[in-house]
Amino acid sequence: MPRINLLPWRDSLKKEREVRFGIITGIALGITALIFLGVHVYIANAISYQESRNNYLTEQIKEAEAKIAEIKELEQKKERLIERMSVIQELEKSRPQVVHLFDELVKQVPPGVYFTKMDQKGDKITLEGVAQSDARVSSLMSNIEISQWLSHPKIYQIVTKEQKQDPNGKGTRVSEFKLEATQTAPKSESEADKSESEKKP
Predict the structure, then answer these.
(1) Which of 39, 84, 121, 192 is the residue whose CA sits 20 to 30 A from 66?
(2) What's the domain count of the chain?
(3) Is 10 domain-assigned?
């Protein structure tokens, strides 16, 4: 009976299997490397894209902040202009009142009284002056009370002082005063009629 040696065939089959395993392993490693490379490239591209978006958003935010700052500056300028316009309008409105005020002061000051200082804050007027007597000051306050452009006189102080003596050796006494009054405006005829009609039952 003849004998067949199968060892060489087995060795060659084993080597062939090892080669196939090596090839398959190499292919698997190659595919894995390609996958990792693809994932890395994708992530790198995603990061780059996100960074570019972040940079774009940062630039847009800076531009928006600059525009907001410019808008705030324009609003402040607008408010300052409105305030100036209001002041100008108030001055234009109060110009005739100032004329009436000085005219009224000249009319209502009694003889023997003169002013040394005048100060106005809003509608409050502070008057300082000298009168020949306390009665002259009372007369001034009465005139202010009935005035159309002044009202509510209030005396703050009144001090009697001795002036320098004349050549005959006689001294005269004067009253230094300080009072406050409120500037008003006379009602028009229509307003006066309206107020009268409101008073009637």
Answers:
(1) 84
(2) 1
(3) no
**What pLDDT digit, counting tens, does each position of 20-48 carry?**
888 898 899 889 999 999 999 999 999 99
Structure tokens at 182: 């409120």
**3-state secondary structure at position 200:** coil
CA 21 to CA 8: how far, in whole Å?
20
Helix extents (H) in the chain = 7-108, 134-145, 189-199
- Helix or strand (DSSP H, E) at 129: strand 124-131
128 inside domain: yes
Tokens coding 138: 């009372």
- Where residue 165 sits, what CATH number does that domain have? 3.30.1360.100
Collapsing DSSP to helix, strand or coil, 5 comes out as: coil
Distances (CA, A) of 113 to 105, 135, 150, 167: 11, 10, 17, 23
Gap between the Cα atoms of 21 and 26, Å rounded: 8
CA angle, 98 then 104 then 109, to 5°: 130
Please state the pTM of the whole predicted model. 0.44
DSSP-assigned states of every residue in 83-111: HHHHHHHHHHHHHHHHHHHHHHHHHHPPT
Q: Is residue 135 part of a domain?
A: yes
Question: What pLDDT score was predicted for residue 164?
Answer: 60
146 and 181 Cβ atoms separated by less than 8 Å: no
The position carrying tokens 């001055």 is 91
| Within-domain flag for 49 | no
